[in-house]
Records
---
Amino acid sequence: MSYLDPVMLARIQFGFTISFHIVFPAITIGLGSYLAVLEGLWLIRKDPVYLDLYHFWSKAFAVNFAMGVVSGLVMAYEFGTNWSYFSTFAGGVTGPLLAYEVLTAFFLEAGFLGVMLFGWTKVGPGLHFFATLMVAAGTVVSMTWILASNSWMQTPQGYEIIGGRVVPTDWLKVIFNPSFPYRLVHMGLAAYLATALFVGSAGAWHLLKYRDNPRVKTMFSMAMWMLLIVAPVQIFAGDEHGHNTLEYQPAKIAAMEGHWSNAPGESVPLILFGWPDMAARKTLYALEVPHLGSLILTHTWDGQIPGLDEFPAGDRPDSAIVFWTFRIMVGLGMLMALLGVLGAWLRWRGQLYDQRLFLRFAVAMGPAGIVAMLAGWMTTEIGRQPWVVYGVMRTADAASRHSALALSTTLAIFVAVYCAVFGTGISYLLKLVAKGPDRGIGPPDPHANLSPARPLSGAPDIDPLSAGTGA
Amino acid sequence: MGIDLSLIWIVIIGFGLMMYVVMDGFDLGIGILFPFVADTHERDIMVNTVAPVWDGNETWLVLGGAGLLAAFPLAYSVLLSALYIPIVMMLMGLILRGVAFEFRFKADESHRWAWDIAFAGGSYIAAFAQGAALGAFIGGFVVTGPSYEGGALDWLSPFSVFTGLGVIVAYAMLGSTWLIMKTGGALQGRMIGHAKRIVPAVLIGIGIVSVWTPLAHGAIATRWFSVPNIFYLAPVPILVVATSLLSMRLLTGGADSRVPNAGPFLLALFLLFLGYTGLAISLWPNIIPPGVSFRDAAGPVQSQGFALVGALLIIPVILAYTGFAYHVFRGKVTGKEGYH
Ligand code: HDD
Ligand code: HEM
Ligand code: HEM
């Protein structure tokens, strides 16, 4: 396949646009829940620190959310523009799932966002907290539907093929397909980790600049608690996910491990590093730990897993890529756990806020969650190749028949617009975070909240209680 | 079969798209009017009138896409492939416009102009692309079985360019009348002036489309001008003319020269509704003109049924909290407070 082959171009275009998109939702999901926690803590403890943090992070949330919305809009149409045969074939399953996502999540988020960001003076604290909760819930519901759809494409069930297209026969089976629970947990944790690392690195950065006020300390401390608890859970969840994949998509695991063949009675080593060569059908320069592959994947000393050689050449995913994306993800996951443990140890010794080497480590880990998440998705998606619906429809048969010229032109436009627009957006986001939550804003003050995004200062005051009934 | 799922779905999708056109129409109209308002402060007011609601408005477009994929996957696939270029244009326009809402308040004063251009430019591109897609849709597509067989530029024709420009003007009408309702003082006065010129332009545009389409498509001519039909359908053009005249009367103040308020906006909504109805009458029951009816494109009954339960239960709830949001932010946006 040449790189100017239309199917490849369509894949690059889809991969490019969704890789940009997923970064924003991940932070939206994490920050949405974080804001809900901050507001809840403020309501319970009445400590203004939480409120200041809420105002601070809600600005970042607003910018990030806008980018998530517009990049997501592209995704909803790309299934038709780039994968029209896939949509004709499987739209009976993916369509209703996407429709439920719009109905139960997107409208909910959009509907309550205004109240959440600008409603401090327009509604009472209870209703405001409710709006924050609805937005946070919307992001999680959205993740649930889209992952049900993606997981069904990985491990399809609950359908029949009638007249050349997928007809769902059992919706519960479609939604709760075998890989869905694992993917949902793993991706949800990834979003929380990515956000915790981002918040933590912002906190560490301000601490390094000696701007250690209670707000900065609180957010840094919260992020470190989050890492300490969630990073190990994620490693466990990832391991479980791997077992599920071994059961349903063994070729993917073989590719991730760079494992080609089994001799009778021989155990599977864990290849730490190496270079899987698809043409030579072996992994070059392999640095192996004997028996560890068997232990991790089969929980036995000598267990075997299928090797890539056992699959027809046309059904093998590209091992060279997924071998490395998988290791990047796992490596970063280990570093996250290390950061969490170091944080706990320093906290116990009373040095959490002033061990500078540790703070530098925390700053450096800021993007790690996003990188691990993207690496994870690439492992999942490229490891699924050459199938778009695993075992049912090949990617090559899914693509619309656009010319290479049309696809390369639009790809160039996407790359130019995305880099310019989202590049600038991310720089605004970082600038916002760099300002830091210094100034105490105190109790709800209408004007404090006007400077962020979309000011609604012009809207007249209304009685919060009478307005609340429509919710 | 007891329930005609395909029929219910085509109505829901038609409703969703109409909600989109009228709601995002006035947001895009604000961007289209931007070049005609030089004052930064007035531009801020214009943006502030739609800032709280644009995201929800745009969600109707996502519902249209998702609904089409759920109920008529074939139509979704063929239409989006055929309209690939205008769709990409529209998406790029909506990206520029959407982020500009946030970014123009985040940018340094000295960079503000760039996001103002993105806001206006994005609105023009999106509106033109939607109109051109509509024109191409009316013109029909080359289809065999489940495949779009035409080329990447088939959508481009004099007619689609005309409808592209027409939608820009129609959104400008919604935007200007929305601002007449939501603002006061000099800005409102200026918008009344614009609206007075835009409303007749929209009427002329509708007129040209009404002549052009029956001339180009025999089936559409038969639909409108064959004998019993012409009597049933006559009210549509009559109402279009009457609505425009009434709107002009309100805008020029009539005899008592009162400042218009919500009236012109409501009439503009009604005018677009009529235009939309006219198109629906011309094209019914085709979902991929000229030859594929919505029944031919129907997805599995199991899919349509499953999604319908959600749509019927949840759309009323959505309408309720959308109404709540508009209620919270109702009334005129004055320049006094501004944002800081
Ligand atoms: C893990 C979660 C996740 C994943 C895998 C995806 N999204 Fe997403 N999406 C979200 C989580 C999310 C979100 C958190 O709910 C967003 C981000 C900001 C927002 O408004 O909602 C969102 C926004 C968003 C929007 C804009 C919604 C609006 O107008 O408010 C659309 C149309 C999509 N997405 C569609 C997609 C499609 C078609 C995807 C698959 C190819 C996809 N998303 C992957
Ligand atoms: C959100 C995070 C995701 C990322 C980062 C991601 C990444 C990718 C990448 C890199 C590819 C290209 C694979 C290749 O060229 O070999 C791809 C393909 C694809 N993905 Fe995903 N994906 C994500 C989620 C999803 C979801 C949620 C869906 C479906 C609901 C999905 C459906 C597809 C489809 C249809 C293709 C095209 C066919 C293919 O090449 O496999 N992806 N994705
Ligand atoms: C350190 C131990 C980890 C292990 C053993 C692990 C394991 C896995 C496996 C086996 C897959 C592929 C599943 C499939 O395609 O069927 C996967 C995917 C993925 N991983 Fe990890 N992972 C780990 C850490 C992480 C971390 C730290 C993150 C992000 C913060 C992350 C994010 C993802 C994402 C987003 C996917 C794609 C979605 C999915 O299939 O769930 N992973 N992981």
Note: The first strand of chain B starts at residue 143 and ends at 144.
---
Amino acid sequence: MTVEHAQRRTPKVAKTNSVFKKAVMAISGIIMVLYLIAHVIGNLKAFSGAEAFNSYSGWIRTVGNPALPGQTTLWVIRIVLLVAVVAHFWAAVSLWRQAKRARPQGYVTKKATAQSYASRTMRWGGVIIGAFIIYHILDLTTGTVNAEGFDSTPYERLVASFQNPFVTIFYAISVILLGMHLRHGIWSATQTLGQSNRRREKTVSLFAVAFATVLTLGFLLVPFSVLFNIID
Amino acid sequence: MTATHEGAMRSSVGNPAAEKRGMNLTLRIWRQQGPTTKGKMVTYKITDISPDMSFLEMLDVLNEQLIMQGDDPVAFDHDCREGICGMCGVMINGQAHGPQQTTTCQLHMRSFADGDTIDIEPWRATAFPIIKDLAVDRRAFDRIIQAGGYISVPTGTAPEAHATPVPKADSDAAFDAATCIGCGACVAACPNASSMLFTAAKVTHLGLLPQGQPERNDRVVNMVAQQDREGFGGCTNIGECSASCPKGISMETISRLNHDLLGALRAGARPKS
Amino acid sequence: MPLELFTVGEPIADTKAPTDVPIGERWSERKFRGRLVNPANRRKLTVIVVGTGLAGGSAAATLGEAGYNVKSFWYQDSPRRAHSVAAQGGINAAKNYRNDGDSVHRLFYDTVKGGDFRSRENNVHRLAEVSVNIIDQCVAQGVPFAREYGGLLDNRSFGGTQVSRTFYARGQTGQQLLYGAYQALERQIAASSVEQHARTEMLDLIVVDGRARGIVARDLVSGEISTHFADAVVIASGGYGNVFYLSTNAKGSNTTAIWRAHKRGAYFANPCYTQIHPTCIPVKGDYQSKLTLMSESLRNDGRVWVPKERGDDRDPRDIPESDRDYYLERLYPSFGNLVPRDIASRQAKNVCDEGRGVGPGGLGVYLDFAEAIERLGRPAVEAKYGNLFDMYAQITGEDPYAVPMRIYPAVHYTMGGLWVDYDLQSTIPGMFVIGEANFSDHGANRLGASALMQGLADGYFVLPSTISSYLADGPFEKVDESHPAAVEALTGVQEQVQKLLSINGNRTPASFHREVGQLMWDLCGMERTDEGLRKAIDRIQEIRQEFWSNLKVTGDWHSFNQTLEHAGRVADFIELAELMCIDALHRRESCGGHFRAESQTPEGEALRDDENFAYVAAWEWTPAGQPPVLHREDLEYEYVHLAQRSYK
Ligand SMILES: Cc1cc2nc3c(=O)[nH]c(=O)nc-3n(C[C@H](O)[C@H](O)[C@H](O)COP(=O)(O)OP(=O)(O)OC[C@H]3O[C@@H](n4cnc5c(N)ncnc54)[C@H](O)[C@@H]3O)c2cc1C
Ligand code: HEM
Ligand code: HEM
Ligand code: SF4
Ligand code: F3S
Ligand code: FES
């Protein structure tokens, strides 16, 4: 009986509930967003000069001393962030693969009706942001790929990087992608966590746009200021 | 029909009135013998189509001609032809049920223009295997319902209908969600081939009513587990589903499902294996 | 009466209703006298249920809950698609929530009268009794019926009744009720008490030693034809209105299940009783494949009219009141636009026959909401009928808020069906027939919102009780595919399928279907005459001959072949059409949906002939060339007195 066949068909079982994966994404996303808020504020200290910027960098490494030994706070932040990125990435890839399995053969013709540009670029946009983060750490935290090398101050590395227009443009593209990621991501997270409804939809969307724009502009300010020698 | 077959088409030659009214169209239709055979797009030309025809009536005309030529007619699912049974449904020019937010049987040829080329494909999803041509097997939806899309009330055990009043707003919202016809357009349109809107509609319908409360946590946990098991994709809130849904099931239902699911997991509900 | 068209056999009678107690006690008495099957034994008993509409779905779920082994069959992909899903208007129940004088007795009375005194009192009374339980059951299942602000259920008045007893879920009542039954059924499938056979069509009944013991069915996907066995068979395959080709039924609705059971010995009762619904969207062109119903509830606020003068082709909005004929309000002052369906339909036909019809071909009348929009405001009209108006606009491309709708009658429901007794058992022991597939309860005309009630009454409450009396004698001797009766049925089906494929003529199944349908509509439709029916019978015989010699079906039967499915159904429709015409011809009275031009009052109203025709006509199939045999079941009216219906 074909019916029986159909019923016994055993597709590759998704081991973890798909909605749970989405929740992991939303929560890790939110953690990263919180970090970025702090980060953009920190970045803006560049306008107060090298001193202020470097001391902020130093402060984050020593805050809590001596009650907490060494760079505890920094490492706590780093670990939380790392876990968030990995979890976020894992969930994204796993859902992506599930989607691939769910439709191995695509349509000859497919038209998008409702998808926004932002929602369509979540995946590849996310990957680019991921690549950016790696590059960015090698550039400004470790200095590995930075012209100033790793024994420079953060401020020096910053200025060195952004004086190179290619680096600035790469940063700009990544940050704009991040803005789009968040514009959809913030709305999406409310939906994923079951907090959106018709009444709230407008407000959440507006907030997402406003937040993403402010954050993006905030991040863009420093690199372009360096490029145009407002900061040097 | 290939060019050589065109002579056999119901022709409007000699009937200028019909020629003025009727449309000539090029159809590119996915033809596939069976679930395991390879398929491909095949081009047919069809003439003298009235704008008042429904899309399926246009396919009927094509099929009558194919049969008379001894060719295999195009298989497609349909039954009520009034937009309620959910049996019909094909991708038309890349959109589920075509350019209007309605069922394929309720789409009329006046939505197209003379000379158009129309691409017609089946729903594509691992969980909806192709039976033949444009007909797919959507029993996976039934198995999602089996996993918990009901209220357990054996016949004869019901209390008096007025024993439990239901606020009109809840009842109306439950009704909105309950209008899902199980057509599968949401899956077809979703870039992830996710059945989330279908599942969410049922979870919302039953979850909003007092009668649905006792099984609410188990229902959502099991239905979501089942849709994963069936091989549907996960939902990433893209929204194509709702925009293609002939019954306009809203994205709010998905939020509600997510809410219920996370709540149920916190409360310790786990899917039956 | 021409003897060559049929012969008369022994009368037939229902013996199951306990008529020694008053009518209000008969159903409980029957349940009490009936035998029960002990829960431990139910597991050993198998029941086949064909159909998953309101009747079959509710029956299969309930029998599964009770512990029987159920095998459920349907031809669509999912049980949720049975055509019950399309019912719009509502479901009746004698709840008297409106305190407007409703009662079980009044519902009983209205239904017997509405059926033009051609239904069985006992069955109708039971239906009215059970109606209240249906609503309770459905509400508990989560059916989202319309509610009032206080949270209680809303009711409306519907199709020719003067009390508000109709429960509804916007314009989608059938859908919501069906989903309730469907979900209950899926629950049983999950619990393994119901075995499912989707996309599987019943093609024959297997009768062993006089008992129904199984069916032959074709898996429409693989094409495999196989036998299935049980201790009892329940048929719930819906109505046969598609014999007219154009109807409001689903494209796949068929008579095959009941027709083939008929050919195995089940009597077919009142086949000519067809309901023609007055408010459908008129036909557009010859490509048309299906008619769409606009809910009857529209007549609550819409006014029906045509121009007074024939040939008046002004834009309806330019026709002044003085030039309009609101003919229903004129002819039936007390019921006006709410007269029963048969009357509304026939009057629409009459005005069109007079040449006053509107729209293409003059086959339409206006259903005008201008006055309602003025009185209630557009938002209120939208709230009440919005989805229907949208549907109309979608199909016709016209805006019904601006221009009056055009409507015309269309075939909608068949009151006839397989004959059953009070237990819903057919003349073949072990075969039960429920829902629209049987003939019971509605007589010659069905009132609005009562088919849903009957389907669910049969499936949830009646059949599960009565079938146990039969099954108490089981389990019956085991039968398998090697039994000669099974082999004979199986090969018969295979040969027929093979034959359909091998004719290789020049006409498609659809072309035959269209031809026989048009013929039936013209000659066995809203008005029937002796002459027309004789002509129809002759013509049908010719069509049948041509069908079997000039049909073209492509492909093979070992795969998904929709043309082949259709061909098999058309073959049965052609045979049924002939019996319908014979039935209509022999019933020389007008009653309900059956209007014989020769039998009318001086004012042109239907004239019943209780003297000669107060009976159910149960037809027995006779093989090859023999005329069918008529068995009469006399109808007695103890509680509702025979009276000419009047809606003046
Ligand atoms: C458009 C429309 C509107 C209506 N509105 C109302 C209303 O408002 N109120 C009201 O009371 N009534 C209404 N009716 C009538 C009512 O809907 C039907 O009479 C009733 O739903 C029939 O239910 P059923 O279970 O008998 O059959 P159906 O619902 O037709 O189910 C038939 C089942 O049998 C199966 N089947 C059929 N043939 C075979 C076969 N050969 N082999 C296997 N399976 C088979 C099908 O798959 C299906 O599951 C309406 C009818 C129509 C068409
Ligand atoms: C490591 C690289 C990243 C990848 C591959 C990635 C990928 C994705 C994907 C595929 C989604 C789901 C798309 C959707 O919901 O439509 C998503 C959602 C989201 N992402 Fe990312 N992302 C990355 C980095 C980030 C970063 C750095 C942030 C925050 C600063 C972030 C915040 C979010 C948020 C808030 C969501 C919404 C969660 C939800 O939908 O529930 N992501 N991401
Ligand atoms: C374009 C503007 C940005 C500037 C000027 C900038 C600047 C810096 C600097 C100077 C540091 C090193 C700090 C230190 O070592 O003390 C740093 C670290 C870091 N930045 Fe950025 N950043 C920018 C954008 C981003 C974005 C968009 C992201 C994330 C998506 C990000 C994520 C990080 C992370 C994860 C670290 C490492 C923190 C640590 O572990 O020490 N940055 N950034
Ligand atoms: S949610 Fe909409 S699109 Fe999806 S199955 Fe239901 S009706 Fe169809
Ligand atoms: S389109 Fe797909 S991703 Fe979710 S919101 Fe709809 S199911
Ligand atoms: S055929 Fe029923 S919804 Fe289209």
Note: The first helix of chain C runs from residue 23 to 33.
